[in-house]
Amino acid sequence: MLTPSLPDEFVKAILEDSPFGASLLTALDSTSPTSIRINPRKGTPIGLKVTKPVPWNEHGFYLADRPSFTLDPLYHAGVYYAQEAASMVVGALIKELPLGDQAIILDACAAPGGKTLALADGLPADSVIVANEINRHRSNILAENLSKWGLDNVIVTQNSTDAFSTMEGLFDVLLVDAPCSGEGMFRKDVKARSEWTPTSPLDCSIRQQRILTDLTACLKAGGFLIYATCTFNRQENEEQIASLLASQTFELYPWKVPSACIPGRNGLGHYFIPGITESEGLYIALMRKRGTAIHHPPRLSEATKSFNLFPLHLTQNQTLYEDFRGVHRVSQTLNTFLKGLKTPLMVKKTGVHVWDKNSISDLPHHDLSLVSEVSTEFPILALAKDEALRYLRGETFPIEKHPKGIYLVTYEKRGLGYIKHLGNRFNNLYPKEWRIRMQLG
Questions:
Q1: Which of 142, 174, 218, 408 is most buried when burial is the number of CB atoms within 10 A of its CB?
Q2: CB 328 within 8 A of CB 322
Q3: What φ, ψ does residue 391 adopt, rounded to 5°?
């Protein structure tokens, strides 16, 4: 199938109204690099052909070619995440910010979750991240990716951004990875070319402005706004920043921008540019909300730790949180945040889901199998690669005889999920909606 050509109006805009020029147009017809970011809590993956590190993220690496991630059990175990390299920069940026203890972060348009994971890896473990996505299907993908990373200090919500407008001064950092016209993905996702229209930038800019208006109040005075898009036009990028500056509510904040990035028009923000940075297109700007923050040291709330269905190991910084969906292992600071939350949110995922309240048995929730350390609550059944892939497809197959009960299935000492061993066979408990549907050959 022929690759759609770049839209004529887009080409004209790049040549007449951008600092990028014809070299960008040429690069958009070249081959995209493949990059991954490693989960620092789960060790290094095996079998991938790494060529070099991503300069702006210590956990990012380029690969020699694009493998079939679907057929690598370690990908499903959350050992690494296939992520476009430019997007990894938020993990380095967040480390530069002078945040106090137990910072609270809102990733307002978070799906599919790559930037949320990068934020989590750049923040202290006592921080809290609210990862929000209004679209139901995309919020499910977001929750899945966060489950595989094994984080207990993150919640996933499914709300319109106006739901946060009453949470005045709650968040220390606001990431708005705004829905955009997708021009920066014209190389990686050629479908984006045919979906783009000459009115796309204006249409998206109106939506972006509404999102920023909804969210301004929930950011603390002195807090930080990270604004990003994967597009190149001024309407969705520099004009949004200029509007925020003109309101006198925000000011630009300096940070160590990767040297290969190009400054935005009028010095507003920076661009990752295909052909210059080894990445797809990304616009990013860092701003600080004017005013002086009033810091109230959080008080850790009490939480019951009684849970009798099966033994559960908790560290000093972890506790249990119970709601209508079940029992969740959460960080102490996330527990405090949830108990102090006054505005109702539609919460899709809370920390590490341990047990589903709708369950009529003692089966653990799948989340527990994916924690960063290999869980010790259940005996372990280690699988070879071909067995692991069959397990991820939802299949059953002969295994060594073991006592009846629940087993944690692992591959290369990383948790994949659970089975219920029945003596002469087993029930595969891997979530149906996550199963591999690709034929194994």
A1: 142
A2: yes
A3: -60, -45
Q: What pLDDT score does 294 carry? A: 64
Give the CATH number of the domain where residue 386 resides.
3.10.450.720
- DSSP conformation class of 65: S
pLDDT of the residue at 280: 97
Q: Based on the domain organization, do 268 and 388 belong to the same domain?
A: no
Structure-token pair, residue 194: 């045919």
CATH number at residue 154: 3.40.50.150
Residues of the chain with pLDDT under 50: 1, 304
Tell me what pLDDT residue 271 has: 98
Does the annotation count 230 as an active-site position? yes
Residue 425 has a pLDDT of: 87
Annotated catalytic residue within 204, 218, 230, 261:
230
The whole-number pLDDT of residue 1 equals 45
Considering its fold, how many domains does the chain have in total?
Answer: 2
Question: How many Cβ atoms are within 10 Å of 229's Cβ, its own excluded?
Answer: 27
**How high is the pLDDT of residue 69?**
96
Cis before 40? omega within 30: no
pLDDT for the residue 360 = 61
- Give the dihedral sign, CA 145/147/151/153: positive
Q: What's this model's pTM, rounded to 2 decimal places?
A: 0.95
- Measured between alpha carbons, how far is residue 54 from residues 36, 57, 85, 285, 329 in Å? 9, 6, 7, 20, 33
Is the distance from CB of 223 to CB of 272 less than 8 angstroms?
no
State the pLDDT at residue 306: 59
Continuous segment of H or E residues that includes residue 53: strand 50-53
210 three-state secondary structure: helix
Full domain range(s) for residue 409: 378-441
- What does DSSP assign to residue 277? B
Domain boundary among the residues 266, 289, 312 is at 289
Asked, for residue 101, whether it belongs to a domain, the answer is: yes
Residue of 284, 260, 275 lying closest to 87 (CA atoms): 284
For 101-158, how does the pLDDT look when each residue is reduced to its tens digit (9 = 90+)? 899 999 999 999 999 999 999 998 899 999 999 999 999 999 999 999 999 999 999 9
